[in-house]
Design goal:
single chain; mainly alpha; 4 helices; globular
Length: about 70
């Protein structure tokens, strides 16, 4: 088994994810979903604010970008 360590250089990343899932309501197993996509979250969180702007994102938009497809109506 590989031991992977992810770095999240920007404070508040966990709070943004928690708030995103809290807004979805009950019935969501956030821990399982987060574990499945943490690599994508880490990749986006590692970008500078300028790099995020280049792809049309703000840091606060990362949770929706990574997880919205799972909750499409």
């Amino acid at each position: 088994m590989n031991n992977v360590q992810l770095r999240y250089p920007h404070p508040g990343w966990r709070q943004r994810l928690d708030a995103y899932f809290a807004n979805l309501g009950q019935g969501v197993n956030a821990a399982t979903l987060m574990r499945a996509r943490m690599g994508e979250v880490a990749g986006l969180e590692s970008l500078s604010d300028a790099e995020l702007r280049e792809i049309g994102l703000r840091r606060v938009d990362i949770p929706a970008r990574v997880f919205d497809d799972m909750f499409a109506a």
